[in-house]
């Protein structure tokens, strides 16, 4: 089974370092920056992992003792060059976060050296993130002139509070792993050379725990996040209709430029009143691509 996964996801390596602990090591470019194929693989692999027998916990790490510097320049250039690629990465970024959150078994991240952008999103989507005290954590989107979306608006306010979330996201202010632990952004901060050892220890303890009780506890805790994502999805759908921004499923049917405030798109209308009012609905279904 693991061989077939590695064939399907060439940027990922799978191993069993301890009974019940499935280790996923991802290989990227410099500082494990994610090229398009790796970004796509880390977003899609979670559904396939559910079919792997014997998984009691997952341990995520970057190859060579470095977590990830985020999306590669190749990924960024692909997004700039192709409207279709931009929309595909938009949905991949969503699945990069919701994949670990929705996975039925506990996920532990060994966050070493750097976690930036998509790398930080993946780290914080884990159930337990173990970071080195000197690890550099940075959202990084605003430095590229891009809104801090995907995990940031979902996880940061819940983990550190709105005031600190705004400070670090709006100012693009980095943190060390030690600061992140103090604020509650990560679960543990340890000496840099002890990150993998501690993360493996935590994953092994989880793998030895009561399987179904852990699953239901994780599911119950994650409902707080799903309530928020449902509301954000409702808002996003209204905003897409207001700006003329096409859906992912219809991206191949349009060649419209990316809407902006100055050029809001061919179907722009004022957002409907009260879009944040009313009951929260379940997260809408989206057919998976490929």
Widest sheet, order of strands: 1-2-3-4-6-9
N-to-C order of helices and strands: HEEHEHHEEHEEHHEHEHH
Structural class: alpha/beta
Which CATH class applies here? Alpha Beta
Mean pLDDT: 80
CATH homologous superfamily caption: 2-enoyl-CoA Hydratase, Chain A, domain 1
Helicity level: 40-55%
Domain count: the total is: 1
Any low-confidence stretches, pLDDT <50, length ≥5? 242-290
- End-to-end separation in angstroms reads 19 Å
| Net shape | globular
Q: Please give the radius of gyration in angstroms.
A: 19 Å
How would you describe this protein?
- It is built from 10 helices and 9 strands.
- It starts with a helix and ends in a 47-residue tail after the last helix.
- Helices cover 45% and strands 14% of the residues.
- Helix 3 (73-81) packs across helix 4 (83-102) and helix 6 packs across helix 7.
- Strand 2, helix 2 (36-49) and strand 3 form a beta-alpha-beta unit.
- It has one domain (2-207): 2-enoyl-CoA Hydratase, Chain A, domain 1 (Alpha-Beta Complex).
- The chain has a 6-stranded mixed β-sheet, sandwiched between helices. The chain has a 3-stranded mixed β-sheet with strand order 5-7-8.
- It has 290 residues and is an alpha/beta fold.
Which helices and strands, and how do they pair?
Layout: H1 2-8, E1 12-18, E2 21-26, H2 36-49, E3 57-62, H3 73-81, H4 83-102, E4 107-111, E5 114-116, H5 118-125, E6 128-132, E7 136-138, H6 150-160, H7 162-170, E8 175-176, H8 177-183, E9 188-190, H9 195-207, H10 211-243
Parallel strand pairs: 2-3, 3-4, 4-6, 5-7, 6-9
Antiparallel strand pairs: 1-2, 7-8
């Amino acid at each position: 089974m693991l061989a077939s996964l590695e064939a399907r996801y060439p940027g990922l390596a799978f191993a069993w370092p301890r009974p019940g602990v499935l280790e996923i090591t991802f290989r990227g470019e410099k500082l494990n920056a994610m090229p398009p194929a790796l970004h796509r693989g880390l977003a899609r692999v979670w559904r396939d992992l559910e079919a792997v027998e014997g998984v009691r916990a997952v341990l995520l790490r970057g190859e060579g003792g470095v977590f990830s510097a985020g999306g590669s320049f190749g990924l960024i250039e692909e997004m700039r060059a192709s409207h279709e690629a931009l929309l595909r990465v938009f949905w991949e970024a969503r699945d990069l976060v919701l994949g670990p959150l929705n996975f039925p078994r506990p996920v532990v991240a060994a966050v070493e050296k750097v976690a930036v952008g998509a790398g930080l999103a993946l780290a914080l989507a884990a159930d337990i993130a173990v970071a080195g005290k000197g690890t550099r954590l940075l959202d990084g989107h605003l430095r590229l002139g891009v809104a801090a979306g995907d995990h940031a608006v979902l996880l940061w306010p819940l983990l550190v509070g709105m005031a600190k979330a705004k400070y670090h996201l709006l100012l693009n202010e980095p943190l060390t792993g030690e600061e992140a632990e103090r604020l509650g952004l990560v679960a543990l901060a340890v000496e840099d050379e002890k990150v993998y050892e501690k993360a493996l220890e935590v994953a092994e303890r989880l793998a030895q725990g009561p399987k179904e009780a852990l699953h239901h506890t994780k599911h119950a805790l994650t409902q707080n996040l799903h309530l928020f994502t449902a509301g954000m999805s409702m808002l996003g759908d209204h905003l897409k209709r207001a700006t003329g921004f096409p859906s992912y499923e219809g991206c191949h049917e349009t060649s419209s430029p990316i809407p902006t405030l100055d050029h809001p798109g061919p179907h722009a209308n004022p957002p409907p009143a009260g879009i944040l009012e009313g009951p929260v609905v379940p997260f809408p279904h989206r057919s998976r691509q490929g």
